[in-house]
Amino acid sequence: MENIFNKYVTDQNIIGIGTGKTIQSFISTIKTNTERVFTPSSLQSFFLLKANRFRTQELQATETIDIYFDSADYFDRENNLIKGRGGALLNEKLLMSMSGCNVILVDDNKFKNSFDGLFVPIEVIRNSLAHVKHALSRHDIDFSVREYPGKIGPVITEHGNLIIDVEYSPSFLKSCRDIVGVVEHGLFLDEEFHVTIERI
Q: Which segments cross the bilayer (predicted)?
């Protein structure tokens, strides 16, 4: 993966970094350089960058970034993505909107001809959970509140919110933020974020 990093990055870049197992491996291949500044999407990536002695800058202090590296849960032939399994989808979408170049690292088993039948995470504030579930039931789509495997209780996002996994429906996802309490969804469209896919 180091060759992918070197392909896109110069010493002066402000670099956004996503989260997840692929990104953990990616960070471990990067050589330390004191001129580079990294803005991570999650605490997990923040601690890993610090452990590897990289300079970091918190997201709330970052106006723009030059390039963003992340992985995806799924991607299609048009470079659309489903993301958010790690619970950092709001930060990831924010960083991608701030970046001049979004590089997504994926292997072939993440490719889907269609997202039909898959589930997409939506992030909701805690106090809205019952309200959002009621609204979802009226849309007649399948959904479930995401829980930690082997633990009691829901997954908590980087912002202290909850995740509901909803059946893929482009029309619903386009309008879901109209439901009070829905913060963001995990469908990332190439037409909005101009994704570059790098297969690993």
A: none
Overall fold of domain 1-109+189-199: Rossmann fold (3.40.50)
Q: Which of 35, 92, 167, 184 is catalytic?
A: 92
With a CB cutoff of 8 Å and minimum separation 6, the contacts of 199 are 106, 107, 108
- At residue 148's C-alpha, the angle toward residues 183 and 108, to 5°, is 80
Give the number of residues written for the chain.
Answer: 200
CATH homologous superfamily of 119-185: ACT domain (3.30.70.260)
DSSP per position, 46-80 = HHHHHHTT-EE--GGG-S-BSEEEEE-SEE-TT--
Looking at the predicted structure, is the pLDDT value of residue 151 above 80? no
Q: Which residue has the higher pLDDT, 62 or 100?
A: 62
